[in-house]
Task: structure prediction
Amino acid sequence: MIYRHLDTLDRQLLEILQDDFPLAPRPWREIGRRLGVPEAEVLRRVRRLTDEGIVLTVSPVLESARIGLVASTLVGMRVPPDRVDESASVINREPGVSHNYLRDHDYNLWFTLAAPDGAALRRTVDNIAARAGISPADLLDLPAVRRFKIGVRFRFFPDGGGEDGI
Result:
């Protein structure tokens, strides 16, 4: 198992962070109440899990179309290996980018982008390519034609719950 070093409390905490983060004035205290530990212990564990790279961020997942970003695309770029970090930095500065990752492929740097409409999407892709110094011939733009929404959730207990059913 990949998560051998995570104890039961870590696993319960991770499940709450993914699926049931409380919308409360003191969410960390509420999580602690659910887990039977003090708020300070929840915060200590979240910091440790963040430092270990297990928790990347605690933030909402927004439905892009409902906030006016109705156009989206997947873009692959051919980037020379010595320019990957620089190009990724350009991509990461764009607010509509939700994913950016390196692949072992001819098109080695990929990202997803959302925008208000197709014209804005095209302008943004062109702008990113220009700022990254990537020619149109080294760009693969795959605009979304149909959306399939999935939820990615990692399970830490085979039956979906911890010792206390959490």
About this structure: Helices lie at 8-19, 27-35, 39-51, 84-92, 118-132. Residues 8-51 form one domain. The longest strand covers residues 71-77.
